[in-house]
Design a protein that fits this description.
This protein is mainly alpha-helical. It is built from 15 helices and no strands.
Length: about 325
């Protein structure tokens, strides 16, 4: 029942985003924009994007190395499976699915690998905010709702980063806090599995225990998102408009921050509304902006989803595997 409500909320948010964006468009003009686009520019964009995925694989290899040194070539399929899960299933299921497959192939506990995934997401969010702050001085017309959202997310992500780093460098103090809370709040029947989950989750945070590790994770995150912005730049050349790379960094930051909201599978609406809004703020015609954003969305979604679906099929995964991955505490038992 809870998942049904989560899915319903996501669909409603996606529908609301589309409701906000569609009235400002002339669909005949959007179609004309799509008909005249030079789609060959997508090819180098896709290639650059997969370079970014390879860097993601290296970053995960780096955060997992205190458990086991896993070759990047073995992690790359799991990264693609994760994207497939996020793009097709609700609830960002891909993060759980790739942790499940990692457990099955490399015997690293799901709760520990999930800790590394959370680290990735926090640093991804920080880089997105960095992109936005670099561009904000040049965007006086950016809607106030975006500026307020950025400020709020900055506080949340910086707080989360500080908290996770503190957990990694002060595990004894964190254990004291956890034990005090668990003694008072957890039922006896849940105490052992949750204690096991906590221990393995804390082990997954050890990649944050040294400043050099934190800097390395942050630096690779910047490279990853710069590669994705280069894809935005390539796809832009398929259309009859031009904005600076800095503007595309801003667009990349805002659309990816927006896709952290619940939505229908594939980030329908939550990707498109801020993407079109940013380009309109820089004088791009709404219909051209819509055609570009739609094409970019498909170019980001389709190739990695197809590759991830192949690896998903090769691993012989099924829906009941997904059900298992959405219960991480049980996997520690």
């Amino acid at each position: 029942m809870k998942r049904t409500w989560q899915l319903l909320v996501g669909i409603l948010i996606s529908a609301f985003c589309l409701y906000l964006v569609l009235p400002s468009l002339h669909l005949a003009e959007v179609r004309k924009t799509l008909d005249t686009a030079n789609y060959w520019w997508i090819v180098p964009g896709v290639l650059v994007y997969f370079v970014g995925l390879w860097v993601r694989s290296w970053r995960w290899h780096y955060t997992l190395r205190h458990f086991k040194v896993i070759p990047i070539a073995r992690l790359f399929p799991l990264i693609c499976i994760g994207y497939f899960g996020n793009n097709v299933y609700p609830f960002r299921a891909g993060e759980f699915i790739r942790s499940f497959v990692l457990k099955r192939k490399e015997d690293i506990p799901v709760s520990s690998s999930l800790a590394t995934v959370i680290i990735e997401r926090v640093f991804d969010g920080l880089v997105m905010l960095l992109f936005v702050f670099l561009a904000l001085p040049f965007v006086p017309a950016l809607p106030l709702v975006y500026r307020n959202s950025v400020i709020g997310l900055t506080v949340v992500l910086l707080g989360a980063t500080a908290f996770f780093v503190w957990m990694a460098v002060q595990p004894q103090r964190m254990t004291i806090v956890y034990t005090w809370l668990a003694d008072r709040l957890l039922p006896t029947r849940l105490r052992k599995p949750i204690d096991d989950f906590y221990i393995r989750f804390m082990a997954g945070l050890q990649s944050l225990s040294r400043p050099t590790d934190v800097l390395m994770i942050f630096a690779t995150s910047i490279v990853i998102w710069l590669m994705e912005t280069v894809k935005y730049w390539f796809v832009m050349h398929a259309f009859s408009f031009h904005v600076s790379f800095l503007v595309l960094m801003l667009m990349n930051g805002l659309v990816n921050l927006a896709t952290t909201l619940p939505s229908a599978p594939g980030y329908v609406g939550t990707f498109d509304l801020p993407g079109i809004g940013v380009l309109k703020s820089f004088g791009v015609d709404a219909n051209i902006a819509a055609g570009y954003t739609f094409t970019l969305h498909v170019a980001l979604w389709l190739p990695v989803t197809a590759v991830g679906a192949y690896y998903f099929w090769r691993e012989q995964l099924r829906w009941d595997d997904f059900e298992r991955t959405t219960q991480p505490v049980e996997t520690t038992m």
